[in-house]
């Protein structure tokens, strides 16, 4: 009797598994099983607890189906500070032929990106893990891909030119990896956002798509002039080229773009700054510090909310309009330290919560200026002989 009951229970279990798999395409069912076998929860995560294959896989957390096919997978608990997952991405992912979206929360998933991926992917986000190796050719054949985020991993090697030519790619985020080589020429993808900061890219900046709204190339080893390239990108709202080796003049037309954040610090830009007109965005953050910029401080930058011009070679008097905006509390930060400025006329105290730094120039900082937050410079003024040399050079010119 007990043996009969056991056989009956086994038969019911097999029937249940058959019914479940019959509601989902067999290839997708097997691919999900492979995915579950390849990944596991980190301590504190319970994402896979409900992945019980005696139930309908389309009801699993993170799985979305349409008819009998899996169309989207979100792996891991998306809540903030979730421990994430560990393991490796299985090679069987390509069997999910209807999959359009695949995302993975930050965790400890390691190894290479699979050599083959579902051809219909439109969204792929695997940021914040330990993925390594080169960018696979499997990425460059995803003709429908619109968003690719592989940031904060351990990917290395060059940027494939074909990746930057995908016909529908709008967002490409590869920051915080170990990518090397140059940015390929002939970028034709209709990109809106390109983020490559925090790699070891070298070479010059090629022409980029006119469509770009967000561009970050900070903390690489890129060099050369950028004036001709940047003037083509009139749709930019965010630009960060900081901590590179770019050189040459800054194009005046750049300051007329509707950019709310402009970060060009710690490069080798040189020459005077001559904006073609007032800033287009009131309250913008402009950081031109740690370059080799010369000439007068431009009055056109007065609309900035935070203005960093420190550690350059600016000369002359600070425009009154900048001082007025600062006193009125409309400019929240003005860093001018380590230049060769000779005048700063202020008739009122700097408001609380506003930062002004004027140290190490050819003028005594006003009593209302506060100590510099970024660099503590012991002397309050430059040595007289340095200032005299600058005045003599200006007279000779």
UniProtKB/TrEMBL annotation:
<keyword id="KW-1133">Transmembrane helix</keyword>
<keyword id="KW-0433">Leucine-rich repeat</keyword>
<dbReference type="Pfam" id="PF13855">
    <property type="entry name" value="LRR_8"/>
</dbReference>
<dbReference type="InterPro" id="IPR001611">
    <property type="entry name" value="Leu-rich_rpt"/>
</dbReference>
<keyword id="KW-0732">Signal</keyword>
<dbReference type="Pfam" id="PF08263">
    <property type="entry name" value="LRRNT_2"/>
</dbReference>
<dbReference type="InterPro" id="IPR013210">
    <property type="entry name" value="LRR_N_plant-typ"/>
</dbReference>
<keyword id="KW-0472">Membrane</keyword>
<feature type="domain" description="Leucine-rich repeat-containing N-terminal plant-type">
    <location>
        <begin position="26"/>
        <end position="66"/>
    </location>
</feature>
<keyword id="KW-0677">Repeat</keyword>
<feature type="region of interest" description="Disordered">
    <location>
        <begin position="369"/>
        <end position="397"/>
    </location>
</feature>
<dbReference type="Pfam" id="PF00560">
    <property type="entry name" value="LRR_1"/>
</dbReference>
<dbReference type="InterPro" id="IPR053213">
    <property type="entry name" value="RLP29"/>
</dbReference>
<feature type="signal peptide">
    <location>
        <begin position="1"/>
        <end position="22"/>
    </location>
</feature>
<protein>
    <recommendedName>
        <fullName>Leucine-rich repeat-containing N-terminal plant-type domain-containing protein</fullName>
    </recommendedName>
</protein>
<keyword id="KW-0812">Transmembrane</keyword>
<dbReference type="InterPro" id="IPR003591">
    <property type="entry name" value="Leu-rich_rpt_typical-subtyp"/>
</dbReference>
């Amino acid at each position: 009797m007990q043996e009969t009951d056991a056989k009956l229970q086994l038969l019911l279990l097999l029937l249940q598994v058959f019914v479940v798999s019959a509601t989902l395409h067999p290839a997708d069912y097997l691919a999900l099983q492979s995915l579950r076998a390849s990944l596991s929860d980190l301590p504190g995560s319970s994402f896979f607890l409900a992945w019980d294959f005696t139930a309908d896989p389309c009801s699993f957390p993170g799985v979305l189906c349409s008819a009998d096919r899996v169309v989207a997978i979100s792996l891991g608990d998306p809540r903030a500070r979730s421990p994430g997952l560990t393991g490796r991405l299985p090679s069987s992912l390509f069997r999910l032929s209807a999959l359009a979206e695949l995302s993975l929360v930050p965790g400890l998933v390691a190894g290479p990106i699979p050599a083959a991926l579902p051809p219909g992917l439109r969204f792929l986000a695997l940021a914040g893990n330990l993925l390594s190796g080169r960018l696979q050719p499997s990425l460059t054949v995803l003709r429908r891909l619109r968003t690719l985020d592989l940031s904060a991993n351990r990917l290395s090697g060059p940027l494939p030119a074909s990746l930057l030519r995908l016909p529908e790619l709008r967002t490409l985020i590869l920051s915080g990896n170990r990518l090397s080589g140059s940015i390929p020429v002939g970028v034709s993808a209709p990109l809106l956002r390109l983020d490559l900061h925090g790699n070891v890219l070298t070479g010059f900046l090629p022409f980029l798509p006119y469509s770009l709204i967000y561009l970050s190339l900070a903390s690489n080893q890129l060099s050369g002039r950028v004036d001709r390239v940047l003037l083509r990108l009139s749709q930019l709202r965010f630009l960060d080229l900081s901590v590179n080796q770019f050189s040459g003049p800054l194009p005046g037309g750049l300051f007329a773009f509707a950019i709310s954040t402009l970060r060009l610090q710690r490069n080798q830009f040189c020459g005077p700054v001559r904006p073609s007109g007032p800033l287009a965005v009131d309250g913008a953050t402009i950081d031109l510090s740690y370059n080799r910029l010369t000439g007068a401080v431009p009055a056109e930058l007065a609309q900035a909310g935070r203005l960093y011009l420190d550690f350059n070679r600016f000369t002359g008097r600070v425009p009154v309009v900048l001082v007025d905006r600062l006193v009125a509390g409309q400019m929240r930060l003005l860093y001018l330290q380590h230049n060769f400025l000779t005048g700063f006329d202020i008739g009122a105290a700097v408001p609380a919560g506003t930062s002004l730094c004027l140290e190490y120039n050819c003028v005594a900082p006003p009593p209302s200026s506060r100590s510099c937050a970024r660099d503590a410079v012991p002397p309050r003024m430059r040595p007289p002989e340095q200032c005299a040399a600058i005045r003599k050079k200006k007279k000779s010119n």
